[in-house]
Write a structure and sequence with these properties.
By secondary structure, this protein is α/β, with parallel strands linked by helices. The chain has 15 helices and five strands. Strands 2-1-3-4-5 form a five-stranded parallel beta sheet, with helices on both faces. β1, α9 and β2 form a beta-alpha-beta unit. α2 crosses α5 and α10 packs parallel to α11. The longest helix is centred in the middle third of the chain and has 22 residues.
């Protein structure tokens, strides 16, 4: 059982019966404890019947409870499983802080293991060759779009970010076959975003979708970078998919910078230096480390 299978369990939650969902949530949040619990004890802890636990095991393709516990133990043995985030009203700041970090790290590892390297390479090449790159997103995805525009405009690419449907439509109409839209959505089902994508495609633009697989956006876009992260409706649950989207944007930006070569690297250094007058004169604690790295690099080049 792998991290991906835990993600599959999260993804299947909405399709489970309510009683089976209770079992799933307990397992995700208490995996270390579950492997030591007999069937009756787990049913009692969750507050469901023993047949419900058996149905849950079969729903995730296990032959029974013992088979499920074996696969769960194999997952924990890999050291890769991070518990599902949950919070009680009595939790301390330290306790729920650790839970949020662990849940987010688990999400990122799952996305890392599933992201398709070939699709990522194609997306980087499309962005590197683009005359213009537009980022579309709503809500939390709109914030990701703005972050993406901030990263890409420094790469000497004509770029903009829009989270208003009217602006997206007007942007899409002005695009051409040498332009790229990066459509960002945690659900892949925002109707206004899908409409903007249709317009962009009709004008010949390439559309890269950061979205769940098998979503309407995934079906429409030219190239999909699929980010399947289950978002629970629990009020305290962190929105890990937003963090995953930000990391994928970082990968794309680094890939484009690498593709554009040394001249862009010099430009980025100049951009960084341009910000120095806006900072206080207080010494940067990392300056000495940077200077030492530069000297070491210079010696290596001389040799």
């Amino acid at each position: 059982m792998s991290v991906t299978l835990f993600d599959d369990l999260r993804a299947r939650l909405p399709a489970f019966r309510r009683s089976e969902q209770k079992v799933a949530r307990f397992v995700l949040r208490n995996a270390d404890e579950v492997i030591h619990l007999p069937l009756a004890a787990l049913a009692g802890r969750v507050g469901v019947s023993e047949p419900t636990v058996i149905r849950f095991c079969r729903a995730i393709d296990c032959t029974g409870y013992q088979d499920f516990k074996l696969k769960l133990a194999q997952t924990l043995a890999t050291g890769e499983q991070f518990s599902e985030f949950s919070m009680n009203e009595t939790d301390s700041v330290a306790e729920f802080s650790r839970g949020i970090f662990d849940s987010t790290v688990g999400t990122l590892l799952g996305v890392r293991d599933r992201i398709d390297a070939t699709s990522m390479t194609r997306a980087i090449n499309a962005l590197s060759d683009a005359s213009r790159v537009e980022f579309y997103g709503y809500g939390a995805s709109g914030a990701v779009a703005i972050d993406a525009q901030h990263k890409f405009f420094r790469l000497r690419i004509s770029t903009a970010a829009y989270s208003d449907p009217h602006m997206q439509h007007m942007s899409a109409v002005t695009l051409g076959e040498h332009d790229v839209v990066v459509a960002i959505s945690q659900t892949g089902r925002s109707s206004s975003l899908l409409s903007s994508v249709d317009i962009a495609l009709s004008h010949g633009a390439t559309v890269i979708g950061l979205c769940p697989a098998d979503s309407p956006l995934a079906e429409k876009c030219t190239l999909g970078l699929y980010i399947d992260v289950f978002e629970d409706s629990e009020v305290y649950r962190p929105m890990s998919s937003r963090i995953a989207h930000l990391v994928v944007i970082d990968i794309l930006a680094v890939g484009v910078a690498k593709t554009r070569g040394p001249q862009l690297a010099e430009h980025l250094v100049a951009v960084k230096r341009s910000l120095d007058p806006l900072r206080t004169a207080r010494p940067d604690p990392f300056d000495r480390a940077r200077q030492e790295c530069a000297r070491t690099r210079g010696k290596s080049d001389d040799q």
